[in-house]
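Hello K.,

You asked for the raw outputs rather than the summary table, so here they are, unedited. I folded two proteins back to back in the same session to keep the settings identical. This is the first:
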Amino acid sequence: MVGGSARSAANGAPLTEALLRRNKIAEVGERAAQRPIGWLKFQLLLKVQKSARIAQRVEPPSAPDSPSSPFRLSPLAQAFVLHFGEMGSRWGINRTVGQIYAMLFLADGPRHAEEISEALSLSRGSVSMGLKELASWNLVQLRHLPGDRRDYYATPRDVWAIFRTLVEERKKREIDPTLTTLRTLLMEPATDPADRFAQDRIAAMHEQIELLTDWYAEMERLDTERLLQLLRLGERVVKALEFKDRMLGRGKGRSLTESDDGRT
């Protein structure tokens, strides 16, 4: 075999790397056959090499790298995340949900569930439930990356977009059902003085909430830049109302409701 390899090289026929490796194995086998112990080692070597080649063929391709570096919470970020978790229970959401949202808010790019679980030391089940809750509030956005089957999540970058979404969702979940109930109660017949008194109180509450929702609808139609201009007016709006009251002869301490009711 060795002579054959030399003659092929002498004749100018190029030997591939696989052929050279096969010739080398055959040469070692010829020498090992002369010694029983060496032959056993040679057979073991062949099995190891065969297993290695099979493993290389069946090894699945590695998953693409994350779009950004692995997320690690700094001490400042940890304080922010912990605070959101504590406040979550006061806002009517789970502590875990608050922590997940705070982490995604500070992240420099979309994150998948494994990264969130590792950074917050949470189970995959808790992370999955928390992400579903945030998605139901429209507070996280689902992203997909080319060549990656995993789901990535991110929060809107615009803080005002987050604020608008949060207010709208709370309105749908809390204010709108309350208004519906109040309207239903006001349509019930009042058969005695106690019911009439109760309906008067309910009507006052209904009117106040509806006034606020009408104001919110007007503000919602404004773009962010115009809304910021309105908010920055601050005290100047109060002064303008006070000036109008003086022009109309109203007292400084009187409310607009009293004036509208004819109690000026």
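The second followed immediately with the same parameters:
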Amino acid sequence: MKKFALAIALLVGPVTVFGLVNHHRSNATSPRATSPVATSPNATSPFAMNPVAMNHDAINHDAISHDASGASEIGQQASPQNSKRPVVVELFTSEGCSSCPPADALLARLQDTQPIAGAEIITLSEHVDYWNHLGWRDPYSSAQYTTRQQRYAVASGGEDNYTPEMFVDGQKGFVGSNEPQARAAITAATDAPSATVTLSLEKTTPKPGRPEISLAVRVDNVPEGKGQGPLDVVLAITESGLRSSVKGGENHGRTLLHTSVVRKLQSVGSINPRNSRTFSAQPVVRIDSSWTKDHLRAVVFLQDKSSMRILGAASFDLSGGQ
């Protein structure tokens, strides 16, 4: 199945649009309709029909607890590099979409090669669920990521959602396989003001039968912005080195490789910049038995709840942790 659409420029940041591209749009009524079509906030959308989508934050608050004691010994730490600005690159993708594997490969190259001078590229692969009724259920998909993509559409004033769709620091959605546009957006993001985000792995005594990691998150120097609203401090756990043998849908018969698949996306708190420009928390994250810990990474980023702009980030490789 091939569908052609024009990538629509968002409101923030100059990025070149490179013409018509082959990509797939999401559903205007429900992820369970007969085929993915353009979604508009003015049409009936998953926000109105999906109970998960009614959570405007699209972030699960339940699976992370907070250790308020702060008494454990601080272990390894990921601090911002002075010479490089962290830039978050999000890809909305699906194993059911035949246009998505090139975008998945681009995301992996950006993570592995770090090709932009001055940028520490932090990648997130978020698998949407609106392709699951078309012959193949993506094992990494979640309605949570569909809803998050919808939030970007609302923030941009009504842009259609589609796969593959890429966002750089929460701004300027574009076709996720467009490497020149991705490089231009990342380069532009390196000049934007950024908070100082620090992520540490704390050394704690493991609990029998309950695999967990304890982290320490700190945010300082939140940049000022006109009309800036409340900011979410968001923690993601990603897994790389994933492989799927697809047995249905548009990618039937293909083996797909995935990098930085978001396994958990959680809010660990919020900042009201009018009152404070610092934040700290000690989240405790349960590790699912199906994940390969040597392939996990923790990512923390600061995001404006209204504009969806990302104002700072840090990441930490968990393979050498507890």
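Helices lie at 46-49, 100-113, 143-155, 179-189.

Happy to rerun anything if the numbers look odd on your end.

Regards,
P.
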